Known about the structure:
By secondary structure, the protein is mostly helical. The chain has helices at residues 4-33, 43-47, 52-60, 64-71, 82-91.
Amino acid sequence: MKRIIPLFIILLFVGVNSLYAEVAKGQKMYIKHLQSQCKNMSGSSFASKHSQDEWEEIYDAGALNSEIKTICKGKTIDEKLLPHIYDFVYEYANDSGKVPSRK
Length: 103
């Protein structure tokens, strides 16, 4: 039992850290691939277009790229980057109470 608790704590921190890494990667992907095409809309403004539930519905329906196209006036992004963008927009949605730091 004494060995299990420290292992659990380590796994908890690794899991939380890797979750944040995906959000940070999504923010970088937004800045690199979308920001200039979205009339220099900040990542915070982009993510706040929808609530977390709305972003989740859009992503689960497979419509994230079409939503990006709507918001960014025709710009789409490579499908393999969508999970990272989703992690970013979900984390900083208009009902999350969080604001991304500048990078």
